[in-house]
Amino acid sequence: MKNVYVILLVLCCLGCKSTKVTPETSTYEGVLKVQGITTYQYGTHTLTNENDVYALTSDTIILDDFDSEYVEITAKRVDGYPVENGPIYLNVKTIKIKNQ
Predict the structure, then answer these.
(1) How many CB atoms are closer than 10 A to CB 26?
(2) DSSP secondary structure string for all residues of 52-97
(3) Backbone angles phi, psi at 90, to 5 degrees
């Protein structure tokens, strides 16, 4: 009887699939600027386009290298933001300079 349980356990585990969850990213365009003093106090840079302002950070890219450039970024929204009256907070994953 013990062997039957072991066989069932092995068969159940073989049917299980481990899936790696990847964070969803989106693409945004606008002018990247070093962020000054703000009321919302998060992010190091901003991305501004005709409609929106986003607060930015990055774990992998030196955003200072793109100050005042019109860029296209791929970014993931940071959980828990925006805070009251603040912009959407994005963690930049990729960046490229675009022609306007």
Answers:
(1) 10
(2) -EEEEE-SS--GGGGTT-EEEEEEEEPTT---TTPPEEEEEEEEEE
(3) -120, 140
Q: Tell me the pLDDT tens digit for each residue of 28-78.
A: 999 999 999 999 999 999 999 999 999 999 999 999 999 999 999 999 999
Instruction: Read off the amino acid at residue 90.
Output: L
pTM (two decimals): 0.75
Amino acid at the residue 67: D
What confidence score (pLDDT) does residue 99 get?
87
Write b or e for each residue in 38-63: b if 16 or more Cβ atoms lie within 10 A of its Cβ, otherwise e. Answer: eeeebbebbbeeeeeebbbbbeebeb
Is the link from the previous residue into 23 a cis peptide, with omega within 30 of 0? no
For tokens 């300079």, the residue is 97
